[in-house]
Specification:
With 161 residues, the chain is α/β, with parallel strands linked by helices. The protein has five helices and six strands. The chain has a six-stranded parallel beta sheet.
């Protein structure tokens, strides 16, 4: 675990049982770009991991991260620390329409399973991306990028809806 884990930033991306080290590494890069931290849950790959390291391009050494056995544990941890916790799932308010308060954590789920039911029962709200296709699914790394940058733009006043 990284040295900065004791002091996680006020924006955290919770990764719920991601299977792909490449997706996880990509999300570490997104977190680094936005000054966020990562909470890896369950079997989500964590540093040191060769495929994660390759995709993370060094951000696995600079992004504060913490591991939890389950995403429900992570959600409970962050809520008890005063964070607003959102889950990225279909059926919620679109990312650019929601108002955000910090500290903030967003749960991104397994591509096949979504966010665990236990974690969903604990989150404050659901944040979504519009899905118009038949599959109604995009890669978790792409979803994390779209949602977190919508949050960043909205908070900085760059996105007015």
């Amino acid at each position: 675990m990284c040295k900065e884990c004791e002091k996680l930033p006020d924006f955290v991306l919770i990764l719920d049982r991601l299977r792909s080290a490449h997706n996880t590494g990509n999300i570490f890069r997104i977190a680094e770009a936005l000054g966020a931290g990562v909470a890896a849950c369950g079997y989500t790959p964590t540093p040191p991991h060769p495929k994660l390291e390759k995709t993370a391009m060094g951000t696995d050494k600079s992004v504060p991260w913490k591991h939890f056995d389950t995403s429900a544990q992570a959600v409970s941890f962050f809520k008890s620390a005063g964070y607003t916790v959102l889950a990225a799932e279909p059926g919620g308010l679109e990312a650019w329409e929601m108002e955000y308060t910090f500290p903030l954590a967003v749960v991104f789920g397994n591509e096949a399973l979504g966010v665990s039911e236990d974690a969903l029962a604990l989150v404050d709200r659901i944040v979504s991306l519009p899905m118009k296709g038949d599959k109604a699914s995009i890669n978790v790394g792409n979803a994390a990028a779209a949602i977190t940058y919508a949050i960043d733009a909205k908070v900085r006043g760059k996105l007015k809806i």
